[in-house]
Amino acid sequence: MSHFSSSTAKIQSTDTPDRFPWFALLALAMTGFICILTETIPAGLLALIGEGLHITKAMAGQLVTLYAIGSLVAAIPFAMFTGGARRRPLLLAIIAGFLIFTTITALSTSYALTLAARFLAGVAAGAAWGMMAGYARRMVPEALRGRALAISMVGTPIALTFGVPAGTLLGDLIGWRAVFGLMSFLTLVLIVCVLWKVPDYPGQSAGQRMTVGQVFVMPGIRPILMVVLTWMLAHNILYTYIAPFLELSGLAERVDLVLLVFGLAALVSIWVVGLLIDRKLRLLVLLSLFGFALVSVALWAGNASAWVVYVAVTLWGLTFGGAATLLQTALADASSEEGVDIVMPINTTVWNLAIAGGGIAGGVLLELVGAQVFPGVLLILLLVALIIAWSAKKHGFPRKQ
């Protein structure tokens, strides 16, 4: 492979394999898939969970909330305290914790215990998100790190696309507890895959590890994080409240189809980003933000037209599918190898803040003004993100990758 010829000594020193580690990267993708699927699957099972635990649907919805809070609060502290640990044993410990807490969720008859288990499962997920990007990048030489990250992230859009509908269907067929039991089984399979194919790497020595403050002030980090915040805030306002927004075009009964179109377009986006990211990261970021801005304009002008909505949703998926990979790669490049295991948990925290902020802001806008105002708010946020990304020419999103 010509990609490997430029720095053989460096590759050997980091134990990078001669062959592209497809299986190991797909094991990381499966980790992300299980994390996202387990987070979102209760959304389609609220009525069944409510009946099983003798609680209201709103109370059942807090199973999603507690999971997200666990991910939010755990990512940065976990990374700081485990930076020196070897990577594979740490990953296996995280997955094992995930297995335990998901199994408790499947078996628990106590609402309080179930909430605690969901919070701790979220902690495990936050810990996993904080280390997966750095792990994936260590498996390949520098020229292929973007592609490796794209592959390791492919489980996320798949879970987002099929998680809720699959959970709803399976819940009706086998019951909500069996669905969580199935997630536990998939986690066991994942443990076997990690033991079989995922390589181990040492952690960082105390002298190598950087603090959150040191990483945060590195050139380019803050502009990228601002793009993460504004881009994901815009996305989550629309994604969280897609059902009431679709009422404007008479598609409220076709939410499943609309989200399927979005998800399939997102998968195409991941494939394209994986091919081009190592050479065209800045261009891909700018095109994605500009395309999403066009989506907001289209939805603003044509939110009453079903065909306009379908076209816009397709473009939305194409601009969003590779977003996580693009932004994580930009952060990893800007933070250097010493800071990557700290910057990723920071990214996880900002990402979850945007998810929470999108839910809160979208809810307030929906109650006070109505869903028709969403595209205008999205356009403002996306223009801010586009200006920041465009301006970060030297650091963050440099012209030459």
Regions with pLDDT < 50 over 5+ consecutive residues?
A: 1-16
Write down the secondary-structure element order.
Answer: HHHHHHHHHHHHHHHH
Biggest sheet descriptor: none
Total helical segments: 16
Overall, the morphology is globular
Topology, number of strands = 0
User: How far is the first residue's CA from the last residue's CA?
Assistant: 20 Å
Oligomeric state of the chains? Answer: single chain
What is the helix content?
over 70%
Helix vs. strand class: mainly alpha
Structure, described:
The protein is mainly α. 79% of the residues lie in helices and 0% in strands. α3 packs across α4 and α6 packs antiparallel against α15. The radius of gyration is 21 Å and the shape is globular. The two termini are 20 Å apart.
Please outline what is shown here:
By secondary structure, the protein is mostly helical.
Summary keywords:
single chain; 401 residues; mainly alpha; 79% helix
Chain-wise SSE layout:
Elements lengths: L7 H6 L8 H19 L5 H8 L3 H26 L4 H21 L3 H28 L6 H8 L2 H20 L1 H22 L14 H5 L4 H20 L1 H5 L8 H48 L3 H15 L2 H46 L5 H18 L10
